[in-house]
Amino acid sequence: MLDDKNPKRTSLEELGEFGLIKHLTKDFTTKQKSTLKGIGDDAAVLDITDKKIVVSTDLLIEGVHFDLSYVPLKHLGYKAVMVNLSDIYAMNAIATQITVSIAVSNRFPLEALEELYSGIALAAKTYNVDLIGGDTTSSTKGMLISITAIGQAKEEDLVYRNGAKPNDLLVVTGDLGAAYMGLQVLEREKEVFKVNPNSNPDLSMYTYVVERQLKPEARKDVVPLLDALGVKPTSMIDISDGLSSEILHLCEESNVGCNLFEDKIPLDPTVISSCEEFKINSTTVALGGGEDYELLFTIDQKEFPKIKGNPNLTVIGHMTDKNEGVHLISRNNTKIPITAQGWNGLSKEEQ
Amino acid sequence: MLDDKNPKRTSLEELGEFGLIKHLTKDFTTKQKSTLKGIGDDAAVLDITDKKIVVSTDLLIEGVHFDLSYVPLKHLGYKAVMVNLSDIYAMNAIATQITVSIAVSNRFPLEALEELYSGIALAAKTYNVDLIGGDTTSSTKGMLISITAIGQAKEEDLVYRNGAKPNDLLVVTGDLGAAYMGLQVLEREKEVFKVNPNSNPDLSMYTYVVERQLKPEARKDVVPLLDALGVKPTSMIDISDGLSSEILHLCEESNVGCNLFEDKIPLDPTVISSCEEFKINSTTVALGGGEDYELLFTIDQKEFPKIKGNPNLTVIGHMTDKNEGVHLISRNNTKIPITAQGWNGLSKEEQ
Q1: Is the Cβ of A12 closer than 8 Å to some Cβ of chain B?
Q2: Closest chain B residue by Cα to residue A345
Q3: Residues B28-82 pLDDT 10s
Q4: Hey, what CATH topology would domain B169-346 get?
Q5: Contacts B83 to A, Cβ<8 Å
Q6: ipTM
Q7: pTM for the complete prediction?
């Protein structure tokens, strides 16, 4: 499970800053017609004259957002791109370019950065985005990755967080909680490894949850899916911090309340079984776990027939008047207020 | 000289991530008509349909790019924006938006971030750019700032690094080496302070060089100046790493050589006097010091009458055939090759 720490080690000083950037980005080519100039000048140049431009940025820091004792660097590069693209898709836009800046301490050899960039390259290729710029520098401690993603959409297609209306349906893509349970499995194995470095754990029964943690996929497919179904959400957000946090954002920005139905929350069987094993409530995990990178959106009730039965989309609640508040309707029909505290208490990720 | 470390200290945990972003950005308003949506959604939305879009990004890290024992946080915020805007101006473009991501350890109270953001706000106001997004997170050690700047220009106005031709004149704005000498003064005073914390140094004679280090100004004025003069450079770059490094970039990208004349390099009298005091060669400082954030560009010889006598612009050399190489012509008329090593040996900034 633990990544091979590279038999070959080339120190970063041997290349110098400009040599390093050139070396890491030499195999990246630009494919978007909107990319006029990528890496290699003071700035990149884009041509997006017929659409609106969408810009999002995220910072990932070793020891805060990722733990290199169990995250392979290639997966980390891939995930760092996903985290950013997810924000672009949450605007109902298409991602087209990224910039990637990294800082690393001297403990990382060149081969480690090549691994990281191979994951970034795979993500860029799979999601059809161009790497157009970035910065590479040394850090006094650890690794950090800062990515800015750029996308485009017609103005009439853009979906903000503030358009939800009372009685709109609340819809989520995919299933929730798996990334958090994957983290629990990985952290447990890290503890086992500390005690017995020769342990060779069988994680095959956890494949789904571990993959959701280590190699999440942003929902690029949902933007054209909604277009094909003829549905434009009234509001949308991506699930990075956890369902409850994102629902609160939509409610606050749209000035509405919400009823979320516990029995509707989509959970993978592996999430349910691992929650039982770890003695954690699966609803708590779905609400507060985060890092699912699914999309959460609202639609007008009259659109329901268009999405009904689609295996990618699950209706999990409906919006209400603001003064009704934001509640989870539990399996035994109890109304439980959803608060940011519920998330703050659980999340280990960000503060 | 050393910054007051704030009598009031509010811990960042009290606010939480969302509270922190809201608090720090609450006084930022957007003014550019191209900013449709700034902070507050998954992504910002821009409308730049009539121009090309220019994107640049830079990372500043405590202990590598700045030393908080003598850099006031407000100045740091201001400088971090300048570093990025300078890249946009080096494309002959106008900067219009920035995203700012920061990571800080728990050692920083809220009041420290407010100081940092007051500098960012001053830079945004002075340079007429909108803050449209960012990320705020904790770090395990120190502070880092990641900024992406976005600008715009008509396609025909854009200037790349690769358009210089043999016989073009090499022109630089302002003067060189002051930021590096400011750093020498500040580092010397830091050592004095360590030995005698009650020392009260008189830095008034170093005002210019210290200000160039702590609060540089990007050359926003040069883009409209060149336009007014009717001059379009054939190539351009900003001086962040030092004159020799930037000349080598222009020569490599444009496939030309260069003769740089030592006696033409513009130096402020304070740079000359502090170089004498520190027993450093002023040409070495201008060539390798960096952080001047001036613009270096080439123009066709026939444009010379248009710039002649302009106090902002100094002709310092001319481009040659590639096979003639890149040389400094010294005051005693010796030809000295300019190499990247000259920069690597001197720079303390980046690797």
Answers
A1: yes
A2: B16
A3: 889 999 999 998 899 999 999 889 999 999 999 999 899 998 899 999 999 999 9
A4: Phosphoribosyl-aminoimidazole Synthetase; Chain A, domain 2 (3.90.650)
A5: none
A6: 0.89
A7: 0.91
